[in-house]
Design a protein that fits this description.
The chain is mainly alpha-helical and about 100 residues long. It has a domain of about 25 residues. About 35% of the residues lie in helices and about 5% in strands. It has three helices and two strands. A two-stranded antiparallel sheet has the order 1-2. The protein is flat, with a radius of gyration of 27 Å.
Length: about 100
């Protein structure tokens, strides 16, 4: 595995456009040691190659899409009935780009 130290962590932080205090870098270095040790333990597991990869850790029961049933859309007047600001049959929205 690639060697790492506080200088490499500072370079990585600078590349991500943020900086931390020296104390925070020390804490990060200690936590990085823990993560590397855990990765080593996982890598030593011989049964790992026999397991199926997980994309999401839970079974999703709502993954079935409903049937698309065409219907008649609302008339424009009814769709705009509750809109406070209307111009030319459309809803007027506030400007979001300066």
């Amino acid at each position: 595995m690639k060697e790492y130290n506080i200088e490499i962590l500072k370079q990585a932080a600078h590349g991500l456009l943020f900086d931390m205090s020296e104390e925070q870098y020390e804490t990060l270095l200690q936590e990085f040691d823990i993560v590397v040790a855990q990765m080593k333990i996982i890598g030593e597991n011989k049964e790992l190659d026999k397991t199926e990869q997980m994309i999401f850790p839970f079974e999703v029961s709502t993954s079935v899409m409903r049937e698309d049933v065409p219907t008649t859309p609302l008339p424009r007047e009814e769709a705009l009935r509750n809109a406070n600001n209307k111009i030319g049959g459309q809803i007027k929205l506030p400007k979001v780009v300066l």
